[in-house]
Amino acid sequence: TTEAREEMAASTASLPQTSPAPHKTTAPYGSWKSPITADLVSGSEKRLEGFSVDSLGRLLWLESRPTESGHVAFMRFPFKFPFVSLPFIVALITPLPLRIFRRAVLVREPKRPGDEPTDITPKGFSVRTTAQEYGGGAFRVLRDVLVFSNDEDQRLYKQSLTSDDSTPLPLTPDYGGPVVRYADGVFDSRFNRYVAVREDHRGTGVHPTTEIVAIGLNEENNQEPKVLVGGNDFYAFPRVDQNGERLAWIEWSHPSMHWDKAELWVGYFSDEGDVYKRICVAGGGTSPVESPTEPRWSMRGELFFITDRHKGFWNIYKWIEQNSEVLSVYSLDAEFTRPLWVFGISSYDFIQTDEQSNILACSYRQNANSYLGIIDEVQNSFLAVDVPFTYITNVISEGHFLYIEGASAFHPTSLAKVSLNDHKSKVVDFQIMWCSSSDSQKYKTYFSMPELIKFPTSVAGQKAYAYFYPPCNSDYQVDPEEKPPLVLESHGGPTDEAHGILNLSIQYWTSRGWAFVDVNYGGSTGYGREYRERLLGSWGIVDVNDCCSCAKFLVDHGKVDGARICITGCSAGGYTTLASLAFRETFKAGASLFGIADLKSLSMDMHKFESHYISNLVGTEAVLSERSPINFVDKFSCPIILFQGLEDKVVQPEQARKIYLALKKKGLPVALVEYEGESHGFRKADNIKNTLEQEMVFFARTVGHFKVADEITPIRIENFD
């Protein structure tokens, strides 16, 4: 179409210059040498897992450190596992996977500029919750008091932020192990307690019990918490109003995931602190089907929240208690939050609230980019303020500052302190307070900038989206007639999205002369409910078709070499990869990283949070079998490399071995890399490095037809070497 040609013509300029230039080496795409090494990609990188502000206005953040190990635990990893460079230490001393988790530490900004930040979490403690498997919301600060979940025993602890003796003291009972988990808590000053979601694994049922409970802040007693709300399958966002009179919360039930259908409730506290009266504010009826989230009380006692009742986009609303009416604060075809995979999301906050008005700061996602927005409720005005981030996750307001977590094509995940002018219309100061990988900026001249592309799907008139990264290395030039090879990635989740931010794993490929495309196939988040629900009942069809359509689109527009297009993915993305290779003939080679090949086996061993997820995405048991690549190994027709952890309890190693043996027998080039001590997701830096290098060499040898610049000893490829 004309639109597509214009889009692609505008982005063609980003390909490396093909005309001769001084001091440049002429070499084929894919054969370039790059300083972005696999060691760099797999090396140390901190992760941000939450942040807050103390009574003195000093920032606190929770960072996990690959150089410090936390507790030793047995762990069955859940379904949605992102492939990230997290070099966990792994030791195998029993038949089950034994994990030593990276330690998560709360850190406080220094008193004076130039000083070093201070660790708040004492040695022997690690701040982490495993509630709902994915955790989040592991701590909360009120003035000078900190409450946090400790990783090893999952108990809640209270810690003073000002006392000389800052030893954490337990608040919850000792059950002899991490069988009771807490998350997403808030302080209830009226009753001197902490209100949180509790996930109780002490019962004899198949799944744990989830409730909202109150924990006394008198650490001397360690009494059994009081149940405030229970009876449903899942709870999140318990939030107490400023007077301690009302409690808001989110709940949902099987078979829905939170983003499918949920309810917002408000309960009233009795003089004894019990919830004696309840009102369903949103989501209780059959229409509209909505998924409310993130309730928050203003200082005036008004309840704000986010829901997607307006055209399927998550927007901010307000509850009018007097007549139980829900009003839109501002309507926009954009997503003001994201799926509830983890607890503790904070997509908006109040930056000014008085008798006349509320002014909110919020993050929102529109047309694949994130923005920082300012909403004046009374004026009904909305303004996007300019910040360097193109992807923003969490926002909090404290005093005269905003604190935002975000990233961009140049910035790795970072935490910034933002000052606005008096009119709240412009950023006057933007300061990076924390960065996940400060060393990455040394290589910015090699970074490929992502280009958002919109391509036609197999459904007439329908579009899907992707981020295209052209090859980029200023040290090289190429033959004008050559097109680059392509690596297409199908993201995990599958209810997740590619973000178009700095990812050294992608830059590893592009700085060596590969093109890379990260596809937001139908079912991805960030584009509204209608787009997200394209995948319901169609996993293995819509995602596969969209990945194939994206590859064809790039080939048709002369961006890549159609004879050298490869596909890769891990976990759920690995399923899309294997399904694409089994049921289509678009790709010339593929790599599956602990990819799901047997949907039926997966659905039988899911934890509670996702126990109905596969059924929603695929359907009946018969359909599970029909869409499982493991049952159609005879249909594979191109080279495949498989990477598999031998302690994987989600994707059994036998699945990869069956595919490997079938392709070997069929005469197709195939390689299998198995890792001792690894589970569903690779943690060891050496294994992450080896996976990245061997995947690249495999593609280079089987379809690239060039020699890589790196000194890598390739593994044996059956039916090829």
From TrEMBL:
<dbReference type="GO" id="GO:0006508">
    <property type="term" value="P:proteolysis"/>
</dbReference>
<feature type="transmembrane region" description="Helical">
    <location>
        <begin position="81"/>
        <end position="101"/>
    </location>
</feature>
<dbReference type="InterPro" id="IPR050585">
    <property type="entry name" value="Xaa-Pro_dipeptidyl-ppase/CocE"/>
</dbReference>
<dbReference type="GO" id="GO:0008236">
    <property type="term" value="F:serine-type peptidase activity"/>
</dbReference>
<dbReference type="Pfam" id="PF00326">
    <property type="entry name" value="Peptidase_S9"/>
</dbReference>
<feature type="region of interest" description="Disordered">
    <location>
        <begin position="1"/>
        <end position="30"/>
    </location>
</feature>
<dbReference type="InterPro" id="IPR001375">
    <property type="entry name" value="Peptidase_S9_cat"/>
</dbReference>
<protein>
    <recommendedName>
        <fullName>Peptidase S9 prolyl oligopeptidase catalytic domain-containing protein</fullName>
    </recommendedName>
</protein>
<feature type="domain" description="Peptidase S9 prolyl oligopeptidase catalytic">
    <location>
        <begin position="505"/>
        <end position="704"/>
    </location>
</feature>
<keyword id="KW-0472">Membrane</keyword>
<dbReference type="InterPro" id="IPR029058">
    <property type="entry name" value="AB_hydrolase_fold"/>
</dbReference>
<keyword id="KW-0812">Transmembrane</keyword>
<keyword id="KW-1133">Transmembrane helix</keyword>
<feature type="compositionally biased region" description="Polar residues">
    <location>
        <begin position="11"/>
        <end position="20"/>
    </location>
</feature>
